[in-house]
Amino acid sequence: MPQLPPISNETLAVLKDIPTQTLIDALWVKNWPSSYINGARPLQLGQKMAGRAVTLRFVPHRPDLAADKPKGDQSAEYVAFELCGPGEVLVIDAMGWDYSSIGGDIKFMRLWQRQIGGLVTDGSVRDSQQLKQYGFPVFSFSTTAKQGPADFWPWQVNDCIQCGGVLVRPGDAVVGDDDGVVVVARSMVDEVIQIAHQREEVEGVIKAQLEVERCSPGKYYPFNDNTWKLYEAKTGKKRVV
Q1: b (16+ CB within 10 A) / e for 160-177
Q2: Which pTM value belongs to this model?
Q3: Of 10, 140, 152, 211, which one has the greatest count of Cβ atoms within 10 A?
Q4: Domains of the chain with CATH codes
């Protein structure tokens, strides 16, 4: 497959305004595997997030690993931090270790300085009060007081990872809101946006019709032949997919 250009900031702005559940539905229309990151819950409600994925993989701690691990600012997490800015979301594979810490206040101060678009992990974060003050969107399994190095270490940057059971490739779109985080493959972004916008419009038509008919939602939802006939009659538009 030819290399696709990075997702533009304009496209990210469009994605940020699409609810995560609508993106899930649009991907489902295309028979795409579930891309909802299990265990990534918002640290603060009311924040929307969309960015290009920068990936970081953690591996389990072992005493001999410390000797091989790059030190100081060459450590994998710090290398990943410097790849991030307002248009990037750092996605960290913590192997689903629920209460193991991927980092906290001092480390993530650098993400605040870089005005990162967001942080996502299937592990947990420390120093939650300070992270809330930093203000960038954080999605994690939970918060924790545990130290991370006793459990695992940051190891690899910008390779394919899993996070919450979902494959994430560098450059994928990562979108978050109060309902969680969804990954949209770079190759699917434009088509998913088109389908998602139409689904939002169709659902508006359905709700308006249900107000009139006062009938069971099952007549039009999930989408069926009645749905598309109604949509075409009300809007004059054809089904995208």
Answers
A1: ebbbbebebbbbbbbbbb
A2: 0.96
A3: 140
A4: 9-185 (3.50.30.40), 191-235 (no CATH)
